[in-house]
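Translate structure to sequence.
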């Protein structure tokens, strides 16, 4: 039976990364719903293209049981996270990440996704792939130079240019 995926998209999101996930899910018949890590469903890509997500991250809280996996699509995540650290949508982001992991569900992401997983406390002692510039900021996760890493229920790719190396394992787990 195919799984259902919740896809988190920051504002602005890296369209190249987001669309790799969405296209792969669509082509493989995997159901997904997009959630903006923002106050509204209207977000943009890093290049300024407007996107409409299905919902906002706030409304994913408490609905984790409806999904089999969580995918974090990166963008300007860390600068925006830093600017908006106190905003409720960023707190909701960390809560949702932790909740999916607590339920043993697949949690996937690229670029700084692994750092957010580390901040949320779900990557302790796990090997992760992440943007090389972010590696020094890790606290409890083990950063690697690998293009992608699967460690338990945690699936990570170094950047949007490495998602293709992660996708076969992720799709296999979702089918």
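Result:
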């Amino acid at each position: 039976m195919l799984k259902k995926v919740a896809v988190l998209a920051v504002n602005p999101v890296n369209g190249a990364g987001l669309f790799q996930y969405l296209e792969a899910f669509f082509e493989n018949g995997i159901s997904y719903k997009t959630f903006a890590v923002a106050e509204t469903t209207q977000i943009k890509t890093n290049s300024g293209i407007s996107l409409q997500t299905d919902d906002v991250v706030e409304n994913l809280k408490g609905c984790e049981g409806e999904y089999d996996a969580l995918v974090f699509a990166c963008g300007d995540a860390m600068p925006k996270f830093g600017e908006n650290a106190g905003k409720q949508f960023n707190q909701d982001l960390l809560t949702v990440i932790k909740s999916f992991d607590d339920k043993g569900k697949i949690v996937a992401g690229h670029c700084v996704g692994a750092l957010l997983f580390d901040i949320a406390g779900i990557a302790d002692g796990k090997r992760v792939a992440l943007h090389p510039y972010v590696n020094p900021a890790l606290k409890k996760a083990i950063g690697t130079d690998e293009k992608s890493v699967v460690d338990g229920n945690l699936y990570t790719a170094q950047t949007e240019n490495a998602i293709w190396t992660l996708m076969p394992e992720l799709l296999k787990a979702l089918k």
